[in-house]
Structures are given as C-alpha cells and as structure tokens.
Specification:
Structural class: alpha+beta
Strand content: 25-35%
Largest sheet: 5 strands, antiparallel
Radius of gyration: 14 Å
Low-confidence stretches: none
Strand order of the largest sheet: 1-2-3-5-4
Oligomer: single chain
Helix content: 25-40%
CATH architecture: 2-Layer Sandwich
CATH topology: Heat Shock Protein 90
Mean pLDDT: 86
CATH class: Alpha Beta
Number of domains: 1
C-alpha cells in the first residue's frame, strides 16, 4: 500500500476546517489506516485552523491538504500562499488563549516541519508512523 496519495483543495474559511477533517477521515478509512485516524484528523484540524487564522492575509483563496503513504509513514501536508510568517514552535504563557496548536503537532507527530513553496507560500508537513 505504499505510495498512495490523496490531495484536496479547500477555501480559506472556517467552514473548511471540518471539511478538511472529514477528508482525512475518509481517506484513511479507505486506506485501512483507522488506527492513525484520530491523530491525523487532529493534526489536519490544527494545521487547517492555522491557515484560516493566518493565511487569509496571503495572495490565494485556497489551501491544499495532501496525504501520502510511504514506507510505513503517513505524510500530511498543508500548503497555503502566506509566506511572510513561517510557523514556529513556541510555549505560550498560561494566560494566552492561543498558540498551542504546534505543541500538539510536535507531541503527536514523528517529525514535522515547514518549507517554502516555489512562488508564494509554504507547506507545513507532518509524519505519523502507520505500522502496527
């Protein structure tokens, strides 16, 4: 089953976050990867929410969510056109009401990172182990 890919585009809007979660859930069900579905759905939700919160200032109207299965790893990528501020892991203070999404991403994933896209924007990627 290695080498599978599924990609979807979503409008940068709050209503797209649950649509992105459902897309991940459906793809992983079809790929028989239900055992990583909860974590992958949460990760997709956090990354899609970040796009809605920050990338609306970019030059595009859409973000892309890609899922790939390769060599025992699920790769989840969220790409947008907002390039002026790359996401960074930080530890928010106890009084802050936001800023914890990447802490969840870091805790749940095998690895994660961000890379610039050709043209405008960035891609945030996450690796989840799928064996077992």
């Amino acid at each position: 089953m290695s080498g599978r890919t599924a990609t979807a585009r979503f409008r940068i809007s709050k209503v797209s976050v649950p649509k992105a979660r459902e897309h991940v859930r459906q793809v992983l069900r079809a790929w028989k990867l239900g055992h990583v579905s909860d974590d992958a759905v949460l990760l997709a939700s956090e990354l899609a929410t970040n796009v809605v919160a920050h990338a609306a200032q970019g030059i595009g109207e859409y973000f892309e969510l890609a899922l790939r299965r390769r060599d025992g790893v699920l790769v989840l990528e969220v790409s947008d056109s907002y390039q002026w501020e790359m996401p960074e892991l930080r530890k928010p203070g106890p009084e802050e009401t936001s800023g914890r999404g990447l802490l969840l991403v870091d805790a749940l994933s095998q690895a994660w990172g961000v890379r610039p896209r050709s043209g405008a924007g960035k891609t945030v990627w996450v690796h989840l182990a799928v064996r077992g």
